[in-house]
Specification:
single chain, 326 residues, mainly alpha, ABC transporter involved in vitamin B12 uptake, BtuC, globular
Amino acid sequence: MNLLVSKQEKEVPKKIDTFKLFDRLGIIFVTLGLGILFTILSSDFFTWSNIINIMRQTSVSAILAAGMTFVILTGGIDLSVGAIVALAGVFGVFLSLHVAAPIAIIGGILIGALAGFINGILTAKMKLPPIIVTLGSMTYLRGIAYIITGGYPLVLTAQSFKDLGSGFFVGIPVPIYITAIVFILSYIVLKYTTFGRNIYMIGGNEEASRLTGIKVESRLTWVYTISGLFAGLAGVILAGRLFTGQPNIGTGYELDAIAAVVLGGTSLAGGVGTIVGTLFGALFMGILSNGLTLLDVPYYWQLVIKGAVIVLAIYVDRIRRKNAKL
């Protein structure tokens, strides 16, 4: 009997480890599998120019997803990032017409951080539901972008601003370098800093975190500020790529960011997830869009498929949480 019990005790950890390993690495295999599928279906997919194109097109949504990871890890949500992209791009281009391009770029990024800070104050200090706060800010921030432009796109003329979104360095688009820096810094913060550990603890149990001395309100305010900062960065990059500041840009970007985060293994309930998983989740969404376009799938059918992927991601998260409790 003792030998039987001992054998069972040894086998249980192995099963748990196997599940955790698949949970962490599953999105990597799925993303690679999707790439292989499109390589078979389209001869234009697996080419150097198209791979670079995918990475460049994914850069904006990936940066948004990085910021969204911080928020969702705390059990929150940020529906305003698409509107912040529009506002930051419009504000940055507007400033570039009056001041030096570097100052305009910084201004666009900071306006995004300010919007995120306000979301954080309303959520953490005033205890308002994140979904309501960010839904409201999604509306008024886009309204501000329309006010700045009068409803018309602003044309970007500063070349250094354009280079931020469309320039190249050693044959690689600048946005790819910026995305890499964002994810490296995010990885270091989440894995090796007290702030990062606090985020996981808050997502796991906010009240227990408060009782252990963690300044929950301060941490949550910073989390939403980071999300706004990254959205502001994504906004000026997109403006540099399009050569314009458009108040209607960024619609639906928040859904792509959330899908990337959840597909990457971060739980909507908070406390579980990795920034590396988010990166592969964003790549999955980018590969999916690119592959469907190469296969001449109509845009409205692409929306249907993307929507199904988002629903599937939420379902997978539910199954993941259910298995984690077993």
